[in-house]
Amino acid sequence: MTASVSPTTSAEAVTRRNVLVLSVAQALGGASGPIIISLGGIVGQMLSPAGALVTLPVTCYHMGLALGALPASFIMRHLGRRSGYLLGATLGMLSGLIATFGIISSAFLIFCLGTLIAGFYGSYVQSYRFAAADEAAGPLKARAISSVMVGGLVAAVIGPQLVIWMRDAIPGVPFAGSFISQTALAVLALPVLAFFRATRPTPGVKLESAGRPLRQIMLKPRFILAVATGIVSYGLMSFMMTAAPIAMVGCGFTVGEAALGIQWHVLGMFMPSFFTGRLITRFGKEKVMAFGLLLIAASAAVALSGIALTHFWLSLVLLGLGWNFGFIGATAMVTDCHTHEERGKVQGMNDFLIFGSVAVASFSSGTLLSTVGWEILNWAIFPIVAAVLVPLLWQARAGARPAGIA
Known about the structure:
It is a single chain. This protein is mainly α. It has a single domain, classed as MFS general substrate transporter like domains (Growth Hormone, Chain: A, Up-down Bundle), CATH 1.20.1250. The chain has 19 helices and no strands. The chain is globular and about 55 Å long. Mean pLDDT is 84; it is low at 201-208. InterPro entries: MFS, MFS_dom, MFS_trans_sf. Pfam families: MFS_1. This is MFS transporter. One of its GO terms (molecular function) is transmembrane transporter activity. The chain crosses the membrane at residues 20-44, 50-72, 84-101, 107-124, 144-166, 172-196, 217-237, 288-307, 313-332, 352-370, 376-394.
């Protein structure tokens, strides 16, 4: 006699497998960001026609994240997450090849096109965290998001190490090999993503239209606070992380030391993911998000205290830690703001707003670094953090907890 398996048990097994699949895919796809951020400004210095454009490749990457968020949401809503993720990995393969060709041919715009397409791939990678939350229930959502983000720990090692190991792989063409490796990682992600299975049916056009209008959701105070925290956490992180490698090289440190600084930074971004979800469950989203913003302010304080290698690296680590608490908390708060039927449009709009702001931040960091300098960039962090930290602390003090959908 064969024992029956309850539907609940079966769904839980699929959910656990999906979280594992998404964690591995995050490790592979998430490595593209560190590669581009470590090298984008440096390759930009080699190829760009003007000093103010050196960070344009990194800006194009973030523009791709923003511009790809809503189309990715649309594709996954109608074709399913797995089909969308496979398409995203295909874009990742293409982006590495185009960027490599841009370096080999000394064509700055072609290189920027490659990083832009890498951003389109990144828009699918960024949605892995929401896919994990969709599969979980109640307080387990934050833990599912946190578990997937653990995959970024591997990305923190893979990306910068590939920059170091592969930068001279093609003789006479520095850094082209690093972007070839980006293509290889996307190839490896394809069979991994093929194992993803949604436990709930993908909503179609009719089901999606049954939800509230997007404008109504966007005007909710909780959604505004979640998006604002996401923008500040990710925007400031990108703002400083884009400028830091250029500033380090400008202070006499090597490209390898700058890449290792980014590696420590990305480790700081993802290492807390082992316990961030539990902290959110215990202390609440607002308190964890506020702590993240305080850490970002602390990173600026360290950067202002000196320009030794230890100052750069410690500042980058604190910046990464602050991003983790702020961004994961903000992501979990966004899931409070929509029903299952509304998830696609709300999650897509959230990422569009965040990564659109990140693109502006990364581009302006290069311009400001060349005009006002590293010190002024860090001073600018404090008022921006304060603008969001005050309402977050007010909500945390009030003990605000959503009773249902915000």
